[in-house]
Amino acid sequence: MLQRLLAFWLWVCAASCLLAGPATAQTAPSTLPGLLVFRLKPGAATLPAARRLSGPAWQKALRQVGATNVAQKFPQAQAPLARKKQVVDLRLVYQAQYPAHLPFAKARALLLQTGLVEYVEPLYQREPLYQPNDPSADSTRVKSVQYYLKNVRAYRAWDISKGDTNIVIGVLDTGTRFTHQDLKDQEKRNYRDPVDGIDNDEDGYVDNFRGWDMADNDNDPTADAAYLGTARGHGITVTGVAAARTDNGKGVAGAGFNCKYLPIKIYPSTPAGVFAGYEAIVYAADHGCQVINLSWGGVGGKSQYEQDIINYAVLNHDVVIVAAAGNTNAELDFYPASYEHVLSVAALEPNNQKGKTNTYSYHVDISAPGQQMLTTGSAHDSAYSTVGGSSLASPLVAGAVALVRAQYPDYSAEQVMARVRQTADSLYTITGNAAYRHKLGTGRLNMHRALAEPTLYAVQLTNVRYEPVPSFQPGDTTLIVAELQNLLAPVSNVRISLTTASPYVRIVRGSVPLGDMLTLSEAANALEPFTVLVAEDAPLATTAILRFHFEADNGYSSDQFVPVLLNPGFITLTAGNLHVSVTSQGNIGYDAINPAVGEGVSYRNGPSLLSIGGLLVATSPERVSDRLLNEAKSVDKDFMSVSPLHFVGAARGADQEIMSRFRDTLSDSTVGVSVRQRGFAWADERRRNYVVVEYTLTNTTADTLRPLYVGLYMDWDLPLANNRNAAGWDAGRQLGYVYDQLAPTLHAGVQLLHGGPVSTYAINNSAPEGAPVRLADGFSNAEKYLMLSSGTAVNTINEQPAGADVSHVVGAELPALAPGDSTRVAFAILGAGSLDSLQAAADVARLEYDKTVTPVRSTAAVVQWQVYPNPAAGSLVVEIPASFAARQLTLLDALGRPVRTWAWNGQPRQRLALPAAAGLYMLRLEGKGGVLTRKVLIRP
Known about the structure:
With 940 residues, the protein is an alpha+beta fold.
């Protein structure tokens, strides 16, 4: 399950979903418009609620966002217990409204810049996974009976345990039918708050005697057709599988037998209502549910807020959460099922083959029957229907989990989930299932074994650490530490090995003994980490699956799978004071407005200074290439990666050098260029306030590009004051810069270093109608061309007295570029505390660019420079040719910070004593022959 912890956050824009249909691989969850959630940093927990949002910096940020109705999302949430690990404090989560015209990315950036919040996210709308059976399926039913109870050995399980009325399954769905003959009196009642108009139990919910309607905020969770169409009965059918009354001589039997259910309605019946699935998880956890069933979700839209809610229920309240894995015949990440600490359930056909329309993945924990499921219906009080989908497989497992909780009351939620997984029946020898090996979980649910098996073993990953950082760039060496916990019976002589089928990952060290593990004991391979190498030719954003295999002397063996993202599409240059993320497709800071790809632009480890930035190339108003916002307020995706971004092993006169190649899409609306992109950063005092980005453009068309404009578009948002910024222009230095007009203590800018005649254009992002460039109605190709081609006449924005939200372009005009010819354009991106410091950095950048970046090193010197052994432990030998005339060696950590410096001894060979800390370092050699660098891996 830990593979989910390390998946990169998948950003998706708002998109509509069909309420009742299965998701597709391209579907993205819709968001609730104008709403966001954020979590304050932990230190705020000790402050009274009234003081948490009262500071001047925070109030200023809220005003800039236009945020209203800011309030704690879960004011009744219980404080975490200090003795527990990984608990979540939901008191730090807040919700706010923001204006519909403001892009979410901008609102997010402004709030993050306060330094007070952990994250800012939209609220996703997750849909019920209802999938009515085709009418022809009637002929294939097994005499219209509940075949699935026999498949999962429910009858034998009930000989051992029939559950307990004190075990409550929270059914979070479209609502229930209290009067149905098989659901009547099955709901868990809250006798502390009878229906009398008073909140007798003082839990914040008036008369929540038998559940709650979270979507409409009332005490009637009855299913309603008003806003649900054909999905109105979804919650009724789901409830029947888990908790229909058993042994009453009517209809069907629920898997949970005597266990009760708590109906919590999460879909609205009124225009004012909203989807409330995650709020309902908190309610269920706070109100005594030991099991929660979630038969809903969506593809993508991974959210830390949603994971926090899951963690609150499982880790803080010891609840088992069971979720449907999805109804798309594809390998997908599906949420909430794919979150950590969730028991993800895939659906099976009656013959135990994977459901023909159901999702599969390494995130699935277990499978259960889900097609042709006879259960309670919604038409009337004695209605039954046969339906299908993972929505029905999930409550079947939830009912089984309830029985296990009753049988093993001392088990934690994680132990219960482990027992259910470990007792599943193998599926992969069944015809048709071999292709889905490891992607249908541990097998098919076996309720009898889950209750009866006397001795079970379950070693589980609890965390995976990557050292020095989880970048997985091409050519990188990464150390991997696996942290484990034994959840069930003691195991002896545990061994763990690491393998992968990816051709782009080579395992250098892949097997480690861990010794004996008692129940609930923990272990890790920190002293002997796995070592992996990423291939130089790893394609952009390629997922590799790491397989962790566990074995023990008592015959126990199991596997867990962790996906890692190779070549994630960006590298952050961190050698100096200015940290700049560069993407493989020409963006600066982030990949357009996607905060998952990039870490922004920051100065002295502060918040990001840049909202959106990137390369802009144009030859006419109709032919423009970029990856920036467009007139439709979506993102132009004109540039495509050809060679992924990677560190250059022997940096060219810099402490860090990166390189990639990309091209545009050669459409009628693009320019027709391929681009070699380089980036350079330095750690020394003179050069640490800037980075250099260099673009070599080649004309890939059959025509001369005349003229050709190349520039960087930068939408700066200086911290706490994005709407009071000003844009200035230093013509002598060809430097465009931005600063806070009322408190000019931070400056950032772009300088043209090499190309043609300079151009610049500054705009107020909130310009009124009629302005030549107005971002409020989108950013058209014509506007982009205007900013590139207008010379330097519109070079400042200085709105008095308050300032403005500003953007600018700094670029170069190239008279012509013939077919097949190439040209080079270079910029410095700068940051400093004052304008004088910024200008001084610009002077150094111009002076040093041609001297230290442009010259080519001696190939012979690079070839003859030897560093061994590598990886090394304790010491390292360096050999160089005498002609290089070395002066000193410097060891830099992964952030570009000097760790140790050695003067060269004048000999061709020198042994260096290395620091004890393991990790990936950069060794820099300086001499008359130039500056050479090489990566060095230090082992413990």
